[in-house]
Amino acid sequence: MWKKAILGSLIAIIGSYVLFQIAYVATSGPSFCAKCHEVKEYVTSWQQSPHNNLNCLECHQPRGEVGKFHAKARGLNYVFQHYSGNFTVPTRADVSDLNCLTCHLGDSESYPDTIRLKNTAKVNHYETIKKSQSCLECHRDTAHALDI
Description:
Helix content: 40-55%
Mean pLDDT: 84
């Protein structure tokens, strides 16, 4: 009896995970995100940016599987705010520096031709990283025009 319960639980967990992954892919792109009027202008500016080959969550979620759950939980809050009109919690798009560095240090197999960080006379990127300065301090509107 307990073997059936364990097997049933395992099947339910795996099935739920597969359904989550399908929903994750279906709701992670700009065409889905642009359905809310709050971000339409950002999607339009993203389409004209050097990062227009990335989907929204490649920048706007923490890394890993837990990051996927975090992003979708945040997204459900945004959907609630959109349809209820109750914007008590400010909506803001988080971007982790790790997402920037994964590509621009050459660690992403998905984007091998990404421009790599380099030090110049103006800025030493490696010192900036050591100081834990955010990439967004200088590159805030790289993928989007912010003051739309």
